[in-house]
Amino acid sequence: MSVLSWNCRGVGLPWNIQFLTDMVRQEKLIFIFLCEILNRRDKLEWVLNKLGGMKVYLWLILKERVGGGGVGDALAKLRGFSQNHIDMEVNVKGMTNWSLTWMYGEPNWSQRKKTWDLLRYLTRDSNLSWCVIGDMNNIVSQQDKRGVAQYLRWLIDGFNDTLVDTGLIDMEIVDHQYTWERGRGTMEWMEVRLDRALLSTTWMANFLEAKLYNLEGTSSDHSPVFLIPQKFE
């Protein structure tokens, strides 16, 4: 069982569809969360039908709605959603249930507090062990950014205060740390770790061998992040 989160910048592109289908077949991918789709509704329905037929949970964040579905309630139950999050309860045989939340942080700096407040609300709403994954649109330190200009200090402080309030811990990424890049080969180049997983201490205790990978080399300016909670059977 594994989870993929991707700000894909156009899911209907043939190579993106091929990437996702290969991940499902080869990596036992179960949960797929996508945002910044940039496709017509008819194309999105085709994507949902194609990947939905592969027994995965696929959820898309659109500007006007949240769309998606999955293989039924046997493994996961939808608890709530908005234009910036999807919250599910996961039930794995032989284990206690846990909460999986996908998050798309507000891209507008002036609205970022809405994301922080949403995380605070969700932590009060559940007593389950908790994993949050997604494009947070935020960093936890200046070391999460390379290139021109420093990140705004108040955004770093606000995000870190949220992590303290929620008890969530930032998970390390295996190999390359930066998940978003702009301006390669120019004086405006930068790369930033915007996509991440945040874990409660109880979730970490339940999944001691969990790994988070940065899957580089896709067509988007964001890399997909790929979470494996436990070893494959």
From TrEMBL:
Domain Endonuclease/exonuclease/phosphatase, chain residue ranges per copy: 15-222
GO MF terms, alphabetically ordered: catalytic activity
Highest taxon of source: Eukaryota
Protein name per Swiss-Prot or TrEMBL: Endonuclease/exonuclease/phosphatase domain-containing protein
Species of origin: Heracleum sosnowskyi
